[in-house]
Design a protein that fits this description.
Keywords: Membrane, Transmembrane, Transmembrane helix. 62% of the residues lie in helices and 3% in strands. It is an all-alpha fold. Mean pLDDT is 75; it is low at 51-67.
Length: 208
């Protein structure tokens, strides 16, 4: 009988220890997930030009529920052109070509899908949906431009280019025509689906 009680106590002790181990594991996993969410939000905020006055996680949540079409246009440029829009722009002034960049990233240890994305090829990737690992690879790919330019700040210059693009444009009707989907907008907490670009621009101008 005494031996049986000892066994029961040991079993209960093992169960309690196992429960604490599971709780600690889940807690650590949640902490890792939270840290990754913040890293993802930070990288996206750098490239897409979110406001810097909010916490990165709040920025991410705010953006996906918001209607800043300039951010959407920047994201659309990345999804369709990668960094080639920048390479072909006057900012580079012909210092290197898309072909030069393509050769440069061949030597970089990143996935082929990210290489295709950087080159504006059909990679099936979308900046909005990228994982932390994919965003880190994208960042590494952007930095490959530093091997092609005499300006050691070239990768930072790309960030400045894409994160501020469309900021001073008054009429972006033509650019918005390219977007596959316009964001919904909210009035007094009620969400409205956009029926036309003109409607969306009218709302946006009235609310800013």
């Amino acid at each position: 009988m005494k031996k049986r009680k000892i066994i029961i106590v040991l079993v209960i002790s093992v169960i309690i220890i196992a429960c604490f181990s599971v709780i600690n594991y889940v807690k650590k996993q949640e902490e890792v997930k939270e840290a990754q969410i913040q890293q993802v939000a930070k990288i996206k905020s750098v490239y897409l030009g979110y406001s810097r006055q909010y916490d990165p996680v709040e920025i991410a949540v705010q953006y996906y529920a918001a209607d800043d079409y300039r951010v959407l246009l920047r994201e659309y440029e990345l999804d369709t052109q990668g960094v080639t829009g920048y390479i072909n722009s006057s900012d580079i002034n012909g210092e290197f070509s898309v072909e030069d960049f393509e050769n440069a990233i061949e030597a970089v240890d990143i996935s082929q899908s990210i290489k295709n994305y950087l080159l504006g090829k059909n990679s099936q990737l979308h900046f909005e949906d990228m994982s932390l690992e994919e965003l880190k690879e994208f960042d590494i790919g952007v930095q490959a431009m530093e091997n092609l330019s005499s300006d050691y700040r070239i990768s930072d210059n790309f960030v400045s280019y894409i994160s501020s693009k469309y900021w001073n444009n008054v009429d972006l009707t033509d650019e918005l025509q390219e977007l596959p989907i316009l964001p919904d907008y909210s009035i007094d907490g009620e969400t409205h689906t956009v029926s036309s670009i003109e409607e969306f621009l009218k709302y946006y101008k009235e609310s800013n």
